[in-house]
Design brief:
single chain, about 260 residues, alpha+beta, Fructose-1,6-Bisphosphatase, Chain A, domain 1, D-Maltodextrin-Binding Protein, domain 2, seven-stranded mixed β-sheet, three-stranded antiparallel β-sheet
């Protein structure tokens, strides 16, 4: 698994370099059928990732946000690569640096490997079953990730929220949670800050797709956290034909009886 994780990190960083080449200059923005934005950086990263994943020896199918129709389904072992070439395109367009490259390996409906690269921040988050979770800082130093655990009763919950996708249901959910402080953030970085213990919970009560969460979910889980639906079930990737995730919550602790 170590070699596989190294390969995926390399591929994600190469895609990140292509994204940054576009980020450094003027670029045009198109609108996809679902009204979401698309830039040449999305396309460039997609082409690199798909080419390089397909060049790996195992021949695992690839599901990328930018070419859904090319995906024929998981292989006979229930495996597929799940890719968001540029997560946080709105953040990319705003030039606030909070965008990522997401690559996950799904096996029997579960993300068993995840790489999240934030090229403008110079950081990467890596995780795989049996290897734990790691953050690589801009200097190349690797730090083992561990969630913070449930906050003390007198301590406010540190809640991560979306910069670009507010939810009308969030206020009600937060009232139930209790005393809290908000940390707005874009892209899959919201899950990663929980994995590194800088936040406690991320409620996502709005639409997301599988490729938005798969890689960062692996990071959270390998750091000791959990990503679950409002019914308390793990967020699953077993049916990739259903692209939308249900509403979910990311918790920076393991005890399901302690929320």
């Amino acid at each position: 698994m170590t070699k596989r994780l190294d390969d995926v990190e390399r591929i994600a960083r190469e895609a990140g370099d292509a994204i940054m080449a576009v980020y450094a200059r003027e670029f045009s923005v198109e609108e996809k059928a679902d009204k979401s934005p698309l830039t040449e950086a999305d396309r460039a990263a997609h082409e690199i990732i798909v080419r390089e994943l397909n060049a790996l020896p195992e021949g695992i199918p690839v599901l990328s946000e930018e070419d859904i129709d090319a995906f024929s389904g998981p292989d006979e072992k229930g495996r597929y690569w799940l890719v968001d070439p540029l997560d946080g395109t709105k953040e990319f367009i705003k030039r606030n640096d909070e965008f990522t490259v997401n690559i996950a390996l799904i096996e029997q409906g579960k993300p068993v490997l995840g790489v999240v690269v934030a090229p403008a921040l110079g950081t990467a988050y890596l995780a795989a079953e049996g290897l734990g979770a790691t953050k690589v800082d801009p200097f190349g130093t690797r730090h083992t990730l561990q969630v913070a655990g449930r906050p003390e009763t007198t301590t406010p919950w540190r809640v991560v929220g979306s910069r670009s996708h507010p939810s009308p249901y969030l206020a009600e959910w937060l009232n139930t949670l209790g005393k809290h402080e908000m940390l707005p953030m874009g892209s899959s970085l919201k899950l990663c800050v929980i994995a590194e213990g800088k936040a406690d919970v991320y409620p996502r009560l709005g639409p997301t797709c599988l490729w938005d969460t798969g890689a960062a979910q692996a990071v959270v889980e390998q750091a000791g956290g959990r990503v679950e639906t409002l019914q308390g079930e793990p967020l699953s990737y077993a049916t990739p034909s259903k692209k939308l995730n249900p509403h979910f919550v990311v918790w920076g602790h393991r005890d399901i009886h302690d929320t």
